[in-house]
Design brief:
single chain; about 500 residues; about 35% helix; 5-stranded parallel sheet
Length: about 500
């Protein structure tokens, strides 16, 4: 190998870190790539765990699946011989008089039919005025337009929580992002139904065992992957990046890619810039816990349980309608569980600052199979106002790059795209140019989060990047000023 190869460190072996390493690893003559991961396995939150009890079963934990538009994820998997299993999304929200699904009419749908019909026009208005509504939480917009609390808390908020995993911060999600879920051809999961709200069971997919998949991919990247190697200090000086691990070993790199959470970046980075502190410090994380269990009685008590059909469940807390609880029937989702006679559920309890309303102690302790705590970020409207617009001004500064789902939207696909984008900016090629949708999604991300076209020249993407540049500077200036006044008046 040439001795003048660029030394690159990727911090984190989750989806974004593995994607960055994959793209850079295709050019061993140009890059000497090292991946440091503090945990004992690759994949980040995408893990596979054993389930206690008969049958020697395993389940994917943290990440379950995705939709067919996850083209970059699917292409990366195919490169290493992996495929997915199709499933159809079946949801069951509420209970009793508040119950509704995407496959049958219920009394709640009939009761709210006028608001359901009117909501389509509201979505189109939000989409047209996206620049304004990016700063407005969906709860405020629904209040302005006179929607009932029942429509908000029993229909709109649960569905938004399902889309984004925003949990108890759902009322604060940007209205513009909610509209995109229904109207954006590349992002939407459902078509809005003016009579039933939702009336489709769209095709999704379930991942193969993620632990094995990421073990295989990381072993075949052709780069140096160090598991259980935690970064404790990053100092940038003299056009070099000096990195210290937990054992006190220091190594010098030319470039560093942070493929970890924003909290870790700010913890280890000894000289963060003003914009790094503002953008990354605005990513808010919450402590959630997932309980995997086989308690039918608990599920029947809190949800309308159709054991052989439903996959997703959400209930609104009766004492505080702004709080949600989410559950999954993994036996109707993950293929390795479908052929068993066991019903494996997961219930997620969100934000431990509200644990006084959790129903976790109602789950039969003898039927709990696995419990896991998570540190999850929630992309409220503040995330899209004060973090996402600033990311383009962080990329490449002081030889530092940022990737991960927190840079835009919390999906596995965005994590993969973000890693490919960081590698691309360093000189790697985009690996899936023949997939039109995958390339389009990559180029859109590159334009928004890096402010760069995929190919500089006389083309539409270049024109868009030049046109967006002054607009984004104004937007960021306005966002920072707006955030200053929010903090001045104690609203942030």
């Amino acid at each position: 190998m040439p001795t003048n190869r660029k030394q690159v460190l990727i911090v984190g072996a989750g989806a974004s870190g593995i994607a960055a390493a994959y793209a850079l690893g295709k050019l061993p003559e140009k890059f000497d790539v090292h991946v440091w991961e503090k945990c004992g396995q690759a994949g980040g939150v995408a893990t596979t765990e054993k389930i206690e009890g008969p049958g020697d079963l395993i389940m994917n934990d943290g990440v379950q699946g995705g939709c067919p538009t996850y083209r970059n994820t699917l292409n990366l998997m195919a490169e290493f011989g992996y495929s997915t299993t199709p499933v159809h999304m079946m949801i069951s929200f509420g209970k009793g008089q508040t119950a509704w699904t995407n496959y049958s009419k219920t009394p709640l749908i009939d009761k709210l039919k006028d608001e359901i019909k009117r909501f389509g026009g509201t979505l189109r208005l939000i989409n047209k005025l996206e620049f304004f509504f990016i700063f407005v939480p969906i709860s405020q917009v629904l209040k302005w337009f006179g929607y009932s609390k029942q429509f908000c808390y029993e229909m709109v908020f649960p569905l938004t929580a399902l889309f984004f995993g925003t949990g108890n911060q759902t009322p604060n999600v940007s209205a513009a992002i909610v509209a995109r879920v229904f109207l954006d051809d590349d992002l939407r999961l459902f078509d809005y139904d003016s009579e039933c709200f939702l009336s489709q069971s769209p095709e999704m997919f379930a991942f193969p065992p993620l632990k094995h998949m990421y073990e295989t991919i990381s072993s075949k990247l052709g780069v140096d992957v160090d598991l259980r190697r935690e970064v404790t200090s990053v100092i940038r000086k003299e056009d070099k990046v000096f990195v210290l691990d937990a054992l006190g070993n220091e190594k010098v790199f030319d470039e560093i890619i942070f493929a970890c959470d924003a909290e870790t970046v700010l913890k280890v980075l000894k000289d963060p810039t003003y914009l790094e502190r503002k953008a990354l410090g605005n990513v808010h994380y919450y402590n959630d816990v997932t309980v995997t269990h086989e308690d039918d009685e608990y599920m029947e008590k809190h949800y309308e349980l159709h054991k052989d059909v439903d996959q997703y469940f959400i209930r609104t807390d009766p004492t505080d309608q702004s709080k949600l609880e989410m559950s999954f029937n993994l036996s109707n989702y993950q293929p390795q569980l479908k052929s068993t006679d066991r019903y494996i559920y997961q219930t997620i309890f969100l934000d431990d600052s509200t644990k006084n309303i959790w129903t976790m102690n109602e789950i039969n302790q003898g039927k709990i199979r696995f419990t896991r705590w998570w540190r999850q970020f929630s992309h409220t409207w503040r995330h899209f106002a004060f973090t996402v617009p600033l990311m383009r001004y962080l990329q490449g500064e002081k030889h530092t790059w940022f990737c991960g789902s927190y840079t835009l939207i919390n999906t596995h696909e965005i994590a993969i795209i973000s890693g490919l984008a960081a590698a691309f900016r360093l000189g790697a090629s985009y690996p899936f140019p023949n997939d039109k949708l995958a390339r389009k999604q990559f180029e859109q991300y590159l334009l928004v989060i890096h402010g760069k076209p995929a190919k500089l020249g006389c083309n539409l993407a270049t024109l868009k990047s030049f046109a967006l540049a002054p607009f984004m500077m104004i937007f960021v200036g306005f966002a920072l000023l707006f955030q200053f006044f929010l903090r001045l008046f104690g609203k942030d």
